[in-house]
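Blinded run. Sample ID left blank on purpose so nobody reads anything into the name before looking at the predicted structure. Input follows.
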Amino acid sequence: QVQLAESGGGSVQAGGSLTLSCAASGRGISEYGMGWFRQAPGEERAFVAAITWGSGTTWYRDSVRDRFKIFRDDRENMVYLRMNNLKPDDTAVYYCARASDGDRGTFYDTYRNVGRYTYWGQGTQVTVSS
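Blinded prediction complete.
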């Protein structure tokens, strides 16, 4: 069993920065892909960023690619999302997630899919005001 706990959310003005943290406990995450998703009121949960195990290949949704950075510290069982130049459209609850067991090679094709992840945190609110 894996428990994920996000922290670091808050309220900022447009142009500000936040770094979200995701602490994993129960089992290590070093062998798994990890992802960040977000959900705004009335919308479905949407992919934000993902990172593979090992050398850490990363992917981002188009709207955050040049502003957000996902990285991991497997020694500490942590995953982070550094968010710069935040915009009001970034307002949402942010969730971290661990990929499911199984064929790791499929992660390269499925990292955007909510269903590719088995374990989820409780979420942390990010609010960006204009």
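Unblinding after everyone has recorded impressions. The helical segments are 107-110.
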